[in-house]
TrEMBL record:
Chain ranges of the ABC-type glycine betaine transport system substrate-binding domain: 32-312
InterPro entries the record matches: ABC_Gly_betaine_transp_sub-bd
Source organism per UniProt: Shinella lacus
Protein name according to UniProt: ABC-type glycine betaine transport system substrate-binding domain-containing protein
Signal peptide (from-to): 1-25
Keyword vocabulary terms for this entry: Signal
Stored Pfam families: OpuAC
Keyword Signal: yes
Amino acid sequence: MKIKTSILAGACLSCMVLGGNAAQAAECGTTDPITVAEMTWLSAGTLAYVAKAILTEGYGCNVQIVPGDTVPTASSMLAKGEPDIAPELWVSTVKSTWDQMLAKGTVYKAGDIFASGGQEGWWIPDYVAEAHPEIRSVSDLKDNWKVFEDESNAGKGRFYACPPGWGCEIITNNLVKALGLEETYEIYPTGSGANLKATIARQVSRKKPFIGWYWGPTEVIGKYKLKVLEMPAYDAAKFTCLTDAKCEKPELTGWAIGEVAVAATTSLKEKAPAVAEFLSKMQVPNAEISDVLAWGDDNKASPEEVATYFFKNYEAIWTKWVPADVVEKVKASF
């Protein structure tokens, strides 16, 4: 009798397990592990954990976070079809590989993660913008160099240069020539990305002027309330010359809007259409994500902790990505 009871209990347990897996598969679309790339910078890491939480808690998926970076992740997705999702893939940086991925058909673009795309440009702090409404575009710098004058080099404005070896270095130097700023500005070296970030922190904390290159969305833009100066629309031919250190006649043009994709494997789209639907709607406004990252930087938070902060404080954004029942499940997990 005990043996029969044990067999019956075991059978019921097996049914429960199989039933649970079936429910998970029906909701998520697959019981296979879904891999999500966590890149090495804060925004990409945060978005990886945002995606993981929604897929795990909201859809019942089996999700694994895997380490990544722009070039190796793109190369791996092309060659192996792994990872399944890269929530912040800077397509502009790996254009050749991206084109191969699309041609091969194993990867597709689910959407654009940043509402305004990736941004590069010349930035000033909000207090400088408020005190000097006459400085709205890069073309206004030539006649307003005194605003950025540094006491250590009186008679010239100070422009904080791109770190040496970065792509923006040659572009910025050529833009300086195109705008005729050589006579009125000192192009001040920053040495590295960390030094540039520290310089911005120092200038803003002292309410001193700052003009220089940066990119967004990042914690720096949100934390230090930087405002990008207006530039003309992107012109491919002019910009190509700006990228050449030997450009004979640099002309003013803006940067192209950086294409930053939510990249996913086609196989995932086919077996998990609900997941694909979520990924197609996953997008964050640039200003708001910069503010989220600023909180993370201030609090020395991990990407997972920043993701939790985002869920709790920016419901108006992420609740638009998924159905109401998924929203409630995700909310209940925090």
